[in-house]
Model the fold of this input.
Amino acid sequence: MKSLAKKMHRFLKSEDGPTAVEYAVMLALIIIVCLTAINAIGTNANTTFQNVADSIGGAS
Done:
């Protein structure tokens, strides 16, 4: 029983676990921001290309 208590104490004192969780949360937030930015850029590019296509199509 003492061995389990010592292992639990060592685990709770260790800072490796919380640090890994913090990095995982930061990575998830960075991925969400990147996907949102890519989506916005793609939407804007699609709108621009559609406007150009409409201009070219209307000129013929």
